[in-house]
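BACKBONE GEOMETRY TOKENS
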Amino acid sequence: MLFTKIKRTLRSGFIGFWRNGSVSLASVLVMTITLIVISCILFVGVVLNTTLKDIQSKVDINVYFTKDASQDNIDQVVKSVKALPEVSDITYTSKDDSLKEFRDRHQNDQLTLQALDELGDNPLGAKMSVRAKDPSQYETIVKFIKTNTTVDTASQQVVDRINYDENKTAINKLSDIIVASRKLGFAAIAFFVFVSVLITFNTIRLAIFIFREEISVMQLVGASAMYIRGPFVTSGVMYGICSGLMTMLILWPISYWLGQLSDSLGVTVNLYQYYLTNWFQLAFILIGSGLILGAVSSYLAVKRYLRI
């Protein structure tokens, strides 16, 4: 008996959905726009997070030694830093190698090379590049270097400078951009969700008005409240499911175009491959979001305007 009631309720909901084709289409389109906005924000979040992780994986800190630092003191600093558990890898560059790198980098700048030759001495000091196991550990490493290894036993400066602050500023700026984009994205989602709920709410309200005579007849013959209200909620759920499916279909060419664009811009993540790889997850999120939006808004409309 219960199964029969549910079956009839669902069938009535499907019939109502198709009979109000133009009104249903308006609700589906608005909800589809909302889901597209949600999916675009997901894509932007993936790109920004991947970019941040990629930058963090390539970031290291350079420790520049003073020109007059003795090799024994430099070796001691390198050894002590390498022993830190936070350090993943160290690359040491001697004074001569630093000079060679400088000459190679400015091989087309004859004026600079001429000025270097006139000095008659190597003005550059040795350096070491330190890569941490996790980007959050750089601050600990830098603090150790500044506290324990910048001055030798003769109170002479060993470490000239560390470029940590420059890299830290770049990473923090990118992190701020990600936070700001997320806030903007949540605001856009909230706005379109509100519009979708409002449109669906009024669509169900209009459907109740159109079928008011049928509702009165059903009440007269003793139809239950669930049987009368159920079809309208079913229609709302249909709006959400159709919107989710339409969004997944629209995202196919959009993600393909974005994938080509991301490759041309050098972004490490291909959005088309991401779409194909995470198809089921995206479908679950978008169709589920549409279903919830349709069900909630239609339930609110039925509760508000269909008093039984």
